[in-house]
Design a protein that fits this description.
about 200 residues; mainly beta; six-stranded antiparallel sheet; two-stranded antiparallel ribbon
Length: about 200
C-alpha cells in the first residue's frame, strides 16, 4: 500500500476430530473405540493472525538514490531513516486436554495411562484463550547499490501475556479431584528479546 506499508490478516474456523492424537495414545476400552472419538488434541476452533511490515516514511526509499549526503541531513533523518517495523499479533481459542485418573484403574496394563475419571470424556478439558504479540524493528545502512547492514531487535510475547498451553490432567482415583487438577502446568514462552546484526549483499 502507500507509504511502504503492507499487512496481512488471516482467520481460521475449524474443528478436528480423531480417536487418537498420538501414535502412543491408548484407548480406555480397546473393545469400544467409538467412545474414543472426540476433539483432537490439535484442535483449535478459532485463530486470528495479523502481521504488518512498515518502512517508516522518513528519508529516502531503499530503492531510490540518496538525494543528499549524510553531512547535510538533519539529525532526525539520520537517526530514523531506513527503519522497518513488523508486528505479528496472534489470538486463538484454547486447545483440548485429556483428563486422566493417573493410574491403571482398569488393570489393562496400557501405557501411557488411558483411564479417565467417571463422567469426563476424552479431551473434554480445555485451556484458556491464547494471545501473543511479537515485534521486530530493523534499521539498515545501505552500502553501494545492493548491499546493506541490518541492526535487528526482536521481541517475542512482547507484553508477557500468560497464555496457558497445558493443564494438569490428573483427577485422582477418588470421587473428589486432586487439588492440582485443571491447574496450569505449561504456558507460552515468557517475553524474550534478542538482537542480531546481518549483512546482506
Amino acid at each position: 500500500m502507500a507509504n511502504e506499508l503492507e499487512f496481512l490478516g488471516t482467520y481460521t474456523l475449524s474443528k478436528t476430530f480423531d480417536d487418537a492424537s498420538d501414535f502412543q495414545e491408548q484407548p480406555q476400552n480397546p473393545f469400544d473405540l467409538r467412545a474414543e472419538r472426540a476433539l483432537s488434541l490439535e484442535h483449535q476452533q478459532q485463530r486470528f493472525v495479523f502481521d504488518a511490515l512498515w518502512d517508516l516514511p522518513i528519508g529516502p526509499d531503499e530503492d531510490e538514490p540518496h538525494p543528499s549526503t549524510a553531512a547535510n541531513q538533519s539529525w532526525y533523518v539520520r537517526a530514523f531513516d531506513h527503519i522497518e517495523v513488523a508486528p505479528i499479533f496472534t489470538v486463538g481459542t484454547g486447545r483440548p486436554v485429556n483428563p486422566l485418573v493417573g493410574l491403571d484403574a482398569s488393570r489393562s496394563n496400557a501405557f501411557p495411562l488411558a483411564d479417565r475419571p467417571l463422567g469426563l470424556g476424552r479431551n473434554s478439558l480445555q485451556t484458556g484463550n491464547l494471545k501473543e504479540m511479537d515485534f521486530r524493528v530493523l534499521k539498515y545502512f545501505p552500502y553501494g547499490q545492493y548491499a546493506h547492514l541490518d541492526l535487528v531487535a526482536e521481541a517475542f510475547n512482547l507484553f508477557n501475556h500468560p497464555s496457558v498451553t497445558q493443564l494438569n490432567p490428573y483427577f485422582g482415583s477418588g470421587s473428589v479431584p486432586l487439588s492440582g487438577f485443571r491447574q496450569p502446568t505449561e504456558g507460552l514462552t515468557a517475553r524474550r528479546v534478542q538482537f542480531s546484526i546481518d549483512f546482506e549483499f
